[in-house]
Design goal:
By secondary structure, this protein is mostly helical. It has a domain of 232 residues. It contains 15 helices and 5 strands. β4 and β5 form a beta hairpin. α3 packs across α6, α5 packs across α6 and α12 crosses α15. It starts with 22 loop residues before the first helix and ends in a 5-residue tail after the last helix.
């Protein structure tokens, strides 16, 4: 079989690997470093979702937007084309053919009519327009989701995981943050396609568990507070047994914590209106996933059906993170794509 050729440059763009890393080895190292890993992962997601919410005030709308953009990058990948960040965002418009609302609804587990409404809202905001079964993003629509801040966040995350893996003979030397950032910008559509392949199902799973993504964000702020206290307890050797991926969530929920997080702090960090935050907190209390103390601060609570679902979701998500990191490190260290 002939190797695929870049339509524009006629250069081979196939990411054929001399060696390939094993996802199981990456996952094993995430588990060995679970506290530091989840701290960086949790903070990355907190920052990413807060930025998205500030822009769109509606995370379902944002997920629909990035799903559509991802389809464009998948089409490029299918044609063996790779665009740099500058090349992609220099485009005056991009066309996504044959949009199927039922397929989007099934993939995102969002009702078809909600998908239709979100697409119409994006059209009203002059981010895209519909022509038959096609969707066209104009310059404003393309620029709206330009991930300037997220590239910094993702580069930092990949950099820290690279340093975590550097002691392993199979991984080799760590990648510098500057190299990671430059690689992402040069092979932007290739890397960001992989990021969205992880991120969209990740968000969809959380939406399925919590009912909506805003509730997940509210809960996540409380979870990060507990994670911080768990890490402190581990530093003081107060944790009697090893923390594994399976036991991690119960350890986080069970760690002793003197102070909780109040609604105003969550609203400030997440950009979600305080009234909405309070409504989400009340629902989480009713589901026995969190509790409120006398100071009107919220803490996690062990037990309950929702907590079981969150724990199962956590394991699925860590497998996805390991798969993403394995793929990214293969691209950066083992493929023909070089700076």
């Amino acid at each position: 079989m002939n190797e695929p050729i870049d339509i524009k440059t006629k250069k081979i763009v196939s990411p054929q690997y001399e060696n390939k890393f094993e996802k199981s080895l990456v996952l094993e190292n995430l588990e060995l470093n679970i506290l530091s890993h989840w701290d960086t992962w949790g903070k990355f997601q907190q920052a990413w979702t807060s930025r998205a919410y500030r822009v769109f005030k509606d995370l379902d709308k944002y997920v629909v937007l990035i799903y559509l953009i991802r389809n464009n990058w998948q089409t490029l990948s299918d044609k063996f084309q790779v665009l740099s960040m500058d090349e992609f965002y220099d485009s005056e418009s991009i066309i996504i053919d044959k949009i199927n609302l039922i397929q989007i609804s099934n993939d995102l587990n969002i009702p078809k009519e909600t998908i239709r409404r979100k697409v119409n809202e994006l059209q009203s905001s002059d981010i895209l327009k519909r022509e038959g079964k096609s969707i066209i993003f104009n310059k404003k629509g393309i620029e709206t989701q330009k991930p300037n801040d997220t590239i910094e966040l993702l580069s930092n995350f990949i950099d820290k995981k690279s340093k975590m893996l550097q002691g392993q003979a199979w991984f080799g030397s760590p990648l510098s943050k500057d190299y990671i950032k430059s690689f992402i910008k040069k092979y932007f559509t290739l890397v960001w396609l992989r990021f969205f392949r992880m991120q969209i199902p990740f968000l969809t799973r959380h939406r399925n568990v919590f009912g909506d993504l805003e509730t997940w964000i509210v809960w996540g702020n409380i979870g990060l507070s507990h994670q911080y206290q768990l890490a402190k307890a581990a530093e003081k050797n107060l944790i009697s047994s090893p923390i594994t991926l399976k036991s991690y969530y119960s350890n986080v929920a069970d760690v002793k914590i003197d102070r909780g997080v109040n609604a105003s702090s969550i609203a400030d960090i997440s950009s979600i209106p305080r009234a909405t935050v309070i409504r989400k907190l009340n629902w989480l209390v009713s589901q026995k996933a969190i509790k409120k103390n006398k100071s009107l601060e919220y803490q996690m609570k062990k037990g309950g059906k929702l907590n079981n679902q969150i724990s199962e979701n956590f394991l699925l998500n860590q497998h996805s993170v390991a798969e993403f990191l394995t793929d990214i490190y293969d691209l950066m260290k083992n493929s023909k794509f070089k700076l």
